[in-house]
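Exam prep: given the inputs below (a chain plus flavin-adenine dinucleotide), describe the expected output before reading on.
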Amino acid sequence: MADLFLVLHTECDGSFSKAALESLSTAADLSSKLGSAYSVGVIGAGASAAADAIAGCGAEKFYTVEDEAVAAPRYSSDTKASAALIKAADAQIILAPGTSRFARCMPGAAYRTGAAVDTHIVALAVEDGKISAQRWYYRQRILTTLSRADRPWILLVDGGVSDAWQGDAGSAGAQAVAVDFGDADNRVVIKGVESPAVDAQTIRPDSAILFVAGAGWTKKQSDGEYHIGDAGVLIQGFLCKAGASLGSSKSLVDLQSDGQETLSFMSHMNQVGQTGSTPRHAKGLSTCCHGEEPHAVGWRFINERRAINTDANCGWAQGKADVVYIADAFEVMEKVNALLS
Ligand SMILES: Cc1cc2nc3c(=O)[nH]c(=O)nc-3n(C[C@H](O)[C@H](O)[C@H](O)COP(=O)(O)OP(=O)(O)OC[C@H]3O[C@@H](n4cnc5c(N)ncnc54)[C@H](O)[C@@H]3O)c2cc1C
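Solution:
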């Protein structure tokens, strides 16, 4: 029986993602805190070679499902494969990276193995042999510490909790777990992948800086005119030069759905805040955005916050930012872009 078991999936090219290697560090750390061994299961293309690549991680045993059915993400086959690994390892505590692939299938695997499952785990601790986990609730406002008596217990660990594991490759001697994939598991067929052009991808979680655009960019400016075209050039110029990730306020993206002329490269995916996302970046620059509480709550994990606003009484100036520049963002960003060139 494996008390502690880590389930990973490979990427389509057979490699492990950063999230996978981070969760490997988390599992190794938890194993040493528990003073017990751990095992690793891998699903996906090239699973056994991937297991060899992490052979030096200290895991006692490795299990793999490498069938063609799990070469690409798909709920039915991923759920079946993950449940098969958990059963093969007879695991009690199961960790997995909180990737979109596992976030989709692990609740199903939990149902099939009679396990409890918790998502978005940001810390794990052991006291008197008892495991506790932490996660945020209510849009990152309440941090809770929880424990469960249910076993098996599956925990999906968020990115950034540990450093990515680094170590020696070797021979993992992985045990292949046979899974009987039927027609129902293969019903959804992946015909191809369409990726946006690299420069069309504005959400960059690994970027050091988050650039947030607010509705002010689309408002009449001091000359009484709209300058939406100029705004687009300035924002995209900065994103390109600084490699920044693009965030937005709700008001700005709502304008787009209302049919008004706005910034075409923005969507609700960029929205930061209470009903948007809570990105994590070392620095954030808010421009033409008021800094209302429902927006600013999404900045919880931005370490250094700066804002540019023409209004000295804006929300950012009420203690929500480290530095507020009372200035015209069009002028400031033109100058910043020139300096970056
Ligand atoms: C339940 C609920 C949930 C919500 N969730 C979210 C959420 O998830 N995310 C979110 O963003 N909002 C959310 N909101 C809306 C939020 O309260 C604000 O309405 C919204 O964030 C305001 O967007 P804004 O600051 O871009 O626009 P505005 O409030 O219109 O502010 C525009 C700002 O631009 C400044 N400006 C204009 N021109 C310039 C210039 N040339 N240079 C510098 N500054 C300039 C103005 O001074 C002004 O401060 C939510 C609201 C509710 C009620």
